[in-house]
Specification:
Layout (H helix, E strand, L loop, with lengths): L7 H6 L3 E5 L2 E6 L4 H10 L2 E4 L6 E4 L3 H8 L11 E8 L5 E11 L2 E5 L5 H8 L2 E2 L4 E7 L3 H8 L11 E6 L2 E6 L8 E7 H14 L2 E3 L1 H10 L34 H10 L4 E6 L11 E4 L2 E12 L4 E8 L7 E5 L2 E8 L8
Parallel strand pairs: 3-13
Antiparallel strand pairs: 1-2, 3-9, 4-7, 4-8, 5-6, 6-7, 9-12, 10-11, 11-12, 14-17, 14-19, 15-16, 15-18, 16-17, 18-19
Helix pairs in contact: 2-7
Length: 346
C-alpha cells in the first residue's frame, strides 16, 4: 500500500501532480512546472517535502560503535552537532544505500536512509523507525536561509553539515545545514502537528513549493548521485568516484575487503559527466558506444536549465576511446565527456 506524508492533503490542495516514489505518493511538480521550480531554487528559494526519506533513531551508550562498525565513513572525524554522508555496503562492496547521519547528542543519532531502504538500516544497526512521526522540509536556494531565519527561533542557522536545535511555534525543530540540490539551504525536521503551518508560512513568504521532478534535475545538474542509478547493486563507491566517503583506516566494515581488492585490480567502469552539447537531453538507461562497441551506459540523464544542454552521469569502461556516441532513432548521436557539477552552484 502506498504511504503518504503528513502534507499529502496540502500538496493536493496546492494543485501538485503526484507520483509514487520509494513507496510514498509524493508531489512531482506544482502548477508552474519543473523548470520554474528548478530556477527558483537556483536564484531564490524553494521548499520540498522530503518526508519520504527514512529516519531511524539510534541511541544509547553503544550507538556510536554500532554505526561506526557498519558504515564506510568515520564518525570519529566529527562530533555531536554535525552531519556526515556515508554508505552502507554489502560484502561485495555494492552500495546498499547512501545515508546522512545526524549526530544530535553524545549518544543520540538520526540515521537517514533513502525511503525504500529503511529496513536495511534497521536490520544492520537497529534503532527505532521514527519516519512517520516527523516531517522533513528541505528549504533550498541562495535566499533559503533568510526565509528560514524569519520563521524558526534559534540563535543562528547552522553552516554546512552542522546541526542546531530550534523551535517553531513552540514545537522543537532540528535544523541541518544539508540538502540535495547543490544550492545552499537547510533541512528542517519538525513534528507533523506543525508541519502544514510551517510549510504554508514559507510559501506565503515567497518560497516556491517544489516537487521531486525539480529535486532530480537539481541534483543531476549538481552532479550528485542517486541510489539505484549511480549507486547500487554492482556499483561501489569507487566506481562512483566517491573514494572520500570510504575511510579504510577506521577499522573493519562490510565490503572493505572487496573495495581493497577492487583498488588492486583497477576500478572499471568509472562514472563520468556527459553532455550532448545541444538542447537534446540524455536519457537514463541509454547505452554508450565507441567504434561500434558498447562501452557504458547513461545512469541519469536529463536537461540542464542553467547550461541549456542535455546532461547526464554515466559509467564508461576505464579504457574507452573517443569519440563516444549513443544510438537513437536509428542514427548516432555524438556525446562528450565533461566535468561535473554541470553549472556553477550557489
Amino acid at each position: 500500500m502506498t504511504k503518504t506524508t503528513a502534507l499529502h492533503a496540502t500538496h493536493l490542495r496546492l494543485g501538485a501532480k503526484m507520483t509514487e516514489f520509494g513507496g510514498y505518493e509524493m508531489p512531482l511538480a506544482y502548477s508552474e512546472g519543473t523548470i520554474a521550480e528548478h530556477l527558483a531554487v537556483r536564484t531564490g528559494a524553494g521548499v520540498f517535502d522530503v518526508s519520504h526519506l527514512g529516519s531511524v533513531e539510534v541511541s544509547g551508550p553503544e550507538a556510536f560503535a554500532r554505526l561506526q562498525a557498519v558504515f564506510t565513513n568515520d564518525l570519529a572525524r566529527i562530533s555531536a552537532g554535525r552531519a556526515q554522508y556515508t554508505h552502507l555496503l554489502d560484502e561485495n562492496g555494492s552500495v546498499l544505500d547512501d545515508i546522512i547521519v545526524w549526530w544530535l547528542e553524545d549518544t543520540r543519532f538520526h540515521v537517514m536512509p533513502n525511503a525504500a531502504n529503511t529496513e536495511n538500516v534497521l536490520a544492520n544497526v537497529g534503532g527505532d523507525d521514527i519516519t512517520d512521526s516527523r516531517t522533513i522540509l528541505a528549504v533550498q536556494g541562495p535566499a533559503a536561509r533568510a526565509y528560514v531565519a524569519d520563521l524558526i527561533s534559534t540563535a543562528e542557522l547552522p553552516s554546512k553539515n552542522r546541526l542546531i536545535h530550534g523551535s517553531y511555534q513552540g514545537a522543537p525543530v532540528i535544523v541541518s545545514g544539508t540538502g540535495y540540490t547543490g544550492s545552499d539551504g537547510v533541512e528542517l525536521s519538525l513534528p507533523n502537528e506543525v508541519a502544514e503551518e510551517c510549510f504554508l508560512a514559507l510559501i506565503e513568504a515567497g518560497v516556491k513549493p517544489c516537487g521531486l521532478g525539480s529535486r532530480d534535475t537539481l541534483r543531476l545538474e549538481a552532479g550528485l548521485p542517486l541510489h539505484g542509478h549511480e549507486l547500487g547493486n554492482g556499483l561501489t563507491p569507487l566506481n562512483a568516484r566517491l573514494d572520500w566517503v570510504v575511510k579504510f583506516d577506521k577499522g573493519e566494515f562490510p565490503g572493505k575487503v572487496a573495495l581493497l581488492q577492487q583498488k588492486i585490480d583497477g576500478v572499471s567502469p568509472l562514472i563520468t559527466g556527459l553532455t550532448t552539447g545541444t538542447r537534446a537531453p540524455l536519457r537514463t538507461g541509454e547505452r554508450i558506444y565507441s567504434n561500434q562497441v558498447e562501452v557504458g551506459w547513461v545512469s541519469s540523464g536529463g536537461y540542464s536549465p542553467l547550461r541549456k544542454q542535455g546532461i547526464g552521469l554515466g559509467f564508461l569502461k576505464a579504457d574507452s576511446p573517443e569519440p563516444i556516441y549513443l544510438e537513437r532513432n536509428g542514427s548516432m548521436l555524438a556525446i562528450e565527456r565533461c566535468a561535473y557539477p554541470f553549472a556553477a552552484m550557489n
